[in-house]
Amino acid sequence: MEWTGARYADKPTVEVRTWIDAPPARVWAVVSDISSMPAMSEELQRVEWLDGADGPAVGARFVGHSRHEAFGEWSTTSHVIECEPERVLAWTVQDPADPSAIWRFRLRPENGGTELSEWMQLGPGRSGLSAAIDRMPEKEQKIVFVRLREFERSIATTLAHIKKRAEA
């Protein structure tokens, strides 16, 4: 029997949720401060707003500098595509018309606190993962599966940091 995991072209996604004992405004203050995200991530090393932006707004851009043991170091430009304070913050990585990834935080008031989810989609545009798939096309589904599991662990860690900061 052949394993039929997701392929990159399927635009696979991962999402992790947590409940935070803090109002959406306090959670938003942490989530929307993207310059603090490297302290909550093993992969993301540094972030800088571009074009004079100093916070999220639709159309704002930022550069993220990342590092991964298998992929080395790289930088990407992201474009904010959704920004509703205390509700949602989303951005595309690289070309907004053909992004290498889409990331989204959603906040929802729940039980006197906030349900926070972080979601991401791979592709459809090319990324560092595309080069690995090009080298080993027969392993595409495994490569995608492993990367999604890495993102799932990383997102869970980020959400735990956000929770700790927002509840402090």
Keywords:
seven-stranded antiparallel beta sheet, START-like_dom_sf, alpha+beta, 168 residues
Structural write-up:
- A hairpin with a 3-residue loop joins strand 4 (72-84) and strand 5 (88-93).
- This protein has a single domain (8-167), classed as START domain (Alpha-D-Glucose-1,6-Bisphosphate, Chain A, domain 4, 2-Layer Sandwich).
- It has a seven-stranded antiparallel β-sheet with strand order 1-7-6-5-4-3-2, with helices on one face.
- The termini are far apart.
- The model has no long low-confidence stretch (mean pLDDT 93).
- It has helices spanning 24-31, 128-135, 140-167, and strands at 13-20, 44-49, 61-68, 72-84, 88-93, 101-110, 113-122.
- The longest helix has 28 residues, at 140-167.
- The protein has 168 residues and is of the alpha+beta class.
- Helices cover 26% and strands 36% of the residues.
- It is built from three helices and seven strands.
- It holds the Pfam family Polyketide_cyc2.
- This is Cyclase.
Give me the CATH superfamily: START domain
Low-confidence stretches: none
How many strands in all? 7
CATH class categorisation:
Alpha Beta
Taking the sheet with the most strands, its summary is: 7 strands, antiparallel
Q: In DSSP terms, counting alpha (H) and pi (I) runs of 4 or more, how many helices? A: 3
- SS strand fraction: 35-45%
* Radius of gyration using CA atoms only: 16 Å
CATH topology: Alpha-D-Glucose-1,6-Bisphosphate, Chain A, domain 4
What class would the helix/strand composition place it in? alpha+beta
Shape label: globular
User: SSE order in H/E notation?
Assistant: EHEEEEEEHH
CATH architecture: 2-Layer Sandwich
First-to-last CA distance: 50 Å
Mean pLDDT across the residues is 93
Number of domains: 1
Provide the helix percentage.
25-40%
Instruction: Record the strand order, biggest sheet.
Output: 1-7-6-5-4-3-2
InterPro entries: Polyketide_cyclase/dehydratase, START-like_dom_sf
Protein name: Cyclase
Organism: Streptomyces fodineus
